[in-house]
């Protein structure tokens, strides 16, 4: 029996929007927001980690999809690129080790200038963000506190950005341990459904034209092991939400990859993501519900 289109299935319900981690996936999430808005859906709560933390915060704070897209398209590499090799040397001398190339001060200023509110609890819609607490060796869930600082920490991609000191702890990219924080949002908001924009990690993407490599060296193999753990964590969260009666709908498109030197292509990624999301929202709802429903 065919189900309603996903957009109609979700209309009028209390939907929580979850935006996943994804290396420079800001533009993909902006396109997804555009399609969700175009379908007439108004999420009541948002959650995100890494790139998803930034876009979820902008949406929860009241920016519409067009404003988010325009803001991202104005950003250039020099706006956040602030290498700090001397700081890295000082940290190494103190026994702290190297955590990243960029100090993150320019990125923090970008956030402070763009965000209409200063604290997580002051956003218009419920907002939940996740970082990796390296000190405690655990994910840290934030639903209150300084918004720009927490986004900065959640986006601090290892090796690129230096880790962020925060309340007696060292915080790093939230995507290290929780790629898409379903439970963090489900346990902090009254919801009827979760809608997830899940950007697949590069190492898990395999096509006929580009099959996965069989052998890997130490560093790459360790990274792929982490990918496996993160994906398993996501699936377990989704299945637990479904078991608790909270449907989880997942849109996971294959989008062009961006990097600091390719930000000018962001407009095309926004368009691609919007088209992929619009197609998913128009398709039967069960097609986007891989962990439950009548399958």
**Any low-confidence stretches, pLDDT <50, length ≥5?**
none
What would the principal axes of the Cα set say about the shape? globular
Sketch the topology as an H/E string, one letter per element: HEHEHHHEHEEHEEEHEHEH
Roughly what percent helix?
25-40%
Number of helices: 10
Q: What is the end-to-end distance?
A: 10 Å
Helix/strand structural class? alpha/beta
Count of distinct strands: 10
Main sheet characteristics: 8 strands, mixed
> Radius of gyration in whole Å, from Cα?
19 Å
| Strand composition percent | 15-25%
Describe this structure in words.
This protein is of the alpha/beta class and 295 residues long. It contains 10 helices and 10 strands. It has helices spanning 6-10, 26-38, 51-60, 65-73, 85-93, 105-114, 147-154, 182-186, 218-243, 266-282; strands at residues 15-19, 45-49, 100-102, 126-133, 138-142, 159-161, 164-166, 169-172, 193-197, 248-251. Strands 1, 2, 4, 5, 7, 8, 9 and 10 form an 8-stranded mixed beta sheet that branches. The protein has a two-stranded parallel ribbon with strand order 3-6. Helix 2 (26-38) links the parallel strand 1 (15-19) and strand 2 (45-49). Helix 2 (26-38) crosses helix 10 (266-282), helix 3 runs antiparallel to helix 7 (147-154) and helix 6 crosses helix 7. The longest helix is centred in the last third of the chain and has 26 residues, at 218-243. The mean pLDDT is 91.
């Amino acid at each position: 029996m065919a189900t309603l289109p996903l957009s109609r299935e979700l209309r009028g319900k209390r939907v929580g929007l979850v935006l996943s981690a994804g290396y420079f996936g800001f533009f993909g999430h902006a396109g997804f927001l555009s399609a969700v808005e175009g379908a007439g859906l108004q999420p009541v709560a948002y959650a995100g980690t890494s790139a998803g933390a930034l876009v979820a915060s902008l949406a929860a704070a009241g920016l519409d999809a067009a404003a988010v897209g325009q803001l991202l398209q104005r950003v250039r590499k020099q706006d956040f690129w602030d290498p700090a090799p001397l700081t890295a040397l000082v940290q190494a001398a103190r026994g702290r080790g190297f955590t990243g190339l960029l100090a993150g001060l320019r990125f923090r200023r970008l956030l402070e200038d763009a965000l209409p509110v200063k604290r997580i609890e002051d956003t218009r819609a419920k907002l939940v963000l996740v970082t990796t607490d390296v000190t405690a060796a655990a994910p840290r869930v934030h639903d209150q506190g300084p918004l720009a600082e927490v986004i900065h920490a959640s986006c601090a991609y290892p090796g690129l950005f230096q880790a962020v000191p925060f309340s007696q702890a060292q915080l790093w990219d939230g995507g290290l341990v929780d790629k898409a924080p379903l439970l963090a949002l489900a346990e902090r908001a009254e919801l009827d459904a979760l809608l997830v924009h899940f950007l697949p990690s590069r190492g898990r993407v395999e096509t006929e034209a580009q099959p996965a490599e069989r052998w890997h060296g130490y560093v790459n193999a360790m990274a792929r092991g982490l990918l496996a753990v993160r994906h398993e964590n996501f699936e377990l969260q989704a299945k637990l939400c479904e078991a608790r009666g909270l449907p989880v709908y997942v849109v996971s498109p294959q989008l062009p990859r961006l990097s600091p030197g390719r930000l000018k292509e962001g407009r095309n990624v926004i368009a691609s993501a919007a088209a992929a999301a619009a197609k998913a929202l128009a398709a039967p709802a069960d097609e986007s519900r891989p962990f439950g429903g009548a399958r």
